[in-house]
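Reply to dn_fold:

You asked what the input looked like. This is it:
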Amino acid sequence: MPAPPTTWAGRVDGGGATLAIATEDGVAVAYVCDGRRVEAWLRGTAVDGRLELTGPGGAGLDGGYGDGVATGTVTARGREWTFELGAVRKPSGLYRATATVRNARVTGGWIVLPDGRQVGVLTEDGVPRPAPELDVTTGRVDGSPVRATAVDAAGNGS
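and this is what came back:
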């Protein structure tokens, strides 16, 4: 049975990275990042309590979900983390933005945690750096308007 629309978010076990997973109608999207340079977007399935996602460069997530919790292992850029994440509600969750700022292509991913803290990576012309704070109500980053949207597994915002 496909997972209902749910988003889980939090820090991986032992710290070092943050992870958000969004599911809807059996489809799953996830974003893992260290808030500095390492990040990966993953896509896959969420069916019968199982999460199976893959991404570029061998990134992957294998886990399960139930009773408001998602657990498992996520890998990105040769690093591996275990996780146990609780379900979250907006404005917590997963956000993505794309823009052209001062002739540079900018993409960003943010995970907004239940306590309001944000972790993300902003890549400008292929160079990653810690993402500045995203105003989730206005879609502004560093005072500049960008198209920042909440990401869901149905493909909105991704």
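The first strand starts at residue 6 and ends at 11.
Hope that clears it up.
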